[in-house]
Design brief:
The chain has helices at residues 3-12, 17-25, 31-36, 40-43, 48-60, 65-80, 94-97, 130-145, 158-168, 190-198, 217-228, 242-252, 270-277, 286-293, 314-317, 320-329, 336-343, 347-359, 374-383, and strands at 82-86, 105-110, 119-123, 149-152, 173-176, 202-205, 231-234, 256-259, 281-282, 363-366, 369-372. It is α/β, with parallel strands linked by helices and 384 residues long. The model is unreliable at 300-316 (pLDDT under 50).
Length: 384
């Protein structure tokens, strides 16, 4: 029996859960040995059904219902194009592995390598205001254009707007589910989930196939959302909401927490104001987040074609819009309005391009405007 089958079998035991799983792994070098030598003190804490399952495995071994279920689960995953990741494996997301008692298993549909990208979680209310949805979409679009993957929960409202914003920028987005990966919830976001997959993203769940949308699953989902991410952006949230749980978990995991302030008359601003009072960073633009976390983009993996853009010259790395923007910047500081007029770019695209150039060290921000750095000025000469 290999480690993945043993982990599936252990997690199949009713009442096991990640907490008890990691207690076991503190005393045994592998999931295989933990399954083989399950201590009586722990076994007695599990429900009778779990005790019967384990004893039947001891008697029947590879023919036991426990092992047969694990093998069937692996076969179903293979049929559905789902990859199983086991904690401790080389493909397991490194940032998630750092949290206390991470999910022993992850079910991943789509691009597994997307989970290794620098991620920012964007979360908020399901019944968000129009302004909240616009903010979620715009911030996600600009952050994705700057090179971050956008992680959220595929829920209605802010989550869906965040995924769509990332897709509009041609970026990668990751949806973490509170159900089995074969049981999308809500169903009306099924088409959005397929878009996530089609554009290099991934769907992720720690729950076995067939798991339904149970209320207890969503705090666990939120823990994975924050655990995968460098930071969490709270867009709108009531004082009692799952999004505030995500922000709290992010703080406990030593991740950055950002929040967009709102009107004192909007109940959905109160959660954001609460986390700001508790130490979250108040943000007004995506650039506020990039200035805090942008340096971590240097850790981006090589592109999927097996190479890296790092070897290309600066001119080769630029798209037409960025070249046009560098030309518009010229030698003098320029305001956002001037750049929009001179380039013809709409505000969201313009901000995304400026963020990219700022991260590349070609543009710097001034009070009220932007100007080329020394490297940017040298590049301008090559474009002339």
């Amino acid at each position: 029996m290999d480690a993945l089958t043993a982990t599936l079998a252990l997690m199949r035991l009713e009442g096991m859960g990640p907490g008890r799983y990691w207690q076991l792994l503190q005393h045994f070098p592998s999931a295989v040995e933990a399954l083989e030598h399950l201590p009586q003190t722990l076994l007695q804490k599990l429900p009778e059904r779990a005790q019967a399952q384990w004893r039947e495995w001891q008697q029947c071994g590879e023919e036991s219902a426990l092992v047969q279920w694990a093998r069937h689960e692996r076969a179903r995953c293979a049929d559905l194009g789902v990859t199983l990741l086991c904690a401790g494996g080389e493909d397991y997301p490194p940032l998630l592995a750092e949290i206390s008692r991470p999910p022993p298993l992850l079910y991943v549909r789509g691009h597994v390598n997307a989970l290794r990208l620098p991620q920012i979680a964007v979360v908020g209310a399901r019944r968000a205001t129009s302004a909240g949805l616009d903010n979620a979409r715009a911030f996600s679009r600009e952050l994705a254009a700057a090179g971050f993957a956008i992680t959220s929960g595929l829920a209605l409202g802010v989550d869906a707007a965040a995924h769509r914003g990332a897709l509009e920028a041609g970026g990668v987005t990751i949806a973490v589910l509170g159900t089995g990966i074969d049981r999308l919830y809500p169903r009306r976001n099924a088409a959005l989930a397929e878009e996530v997959l089609a554009h290099g993203g991934a769907l992720v769940s720690e729950f076995p196939l067939g798991t339904g949308a149970e209320a207890a699953n969503f705090p666990r989902r939120n823990r994975v959302i924050s655990g995968l991410s460098l930071g969490v952006l709270l867009v709108e949230a009531a004082l009692r909401s799952g999004s505030l749980i995500t922000a709290r978990l992010a703080a406990e995991q030593n991740r950055e927490v950002f929040a967009i302030p709102g009107s004192i008359h909007n109940p959905l601003s109160r959660g954001c104001h609460r986390v700001i009072r508790d130490g979250a960073a108040l943000v007004e633009t995506a650039a506020d987040i990039v200035s805090e976390l942008g340096g971590l983009l240097n850790d981006l993996p090589a592109s999927s074609d097996g190479g890296s853009h790092q070897d290309a010259g600066p001119t080769q790395r630029l798209g037409d819009a960025e070249r046009r923007l560098i030309g518009a910047l010229g030698g003098d500081p320029r305001t956002l309005e001037q750049l929009a007029r001179d380039t013809g770019l709409e505000a969201g695209t313009l901000m995304a391009q400026l963020l990219q150039l700022e991260l590349a060290g070609m543009v710097e921000t001034l009070p009220g405007g932007y100007q080329l750095t020394g490297e940017g000025a040298r590049l301008l000469e090559t474009l002339a």
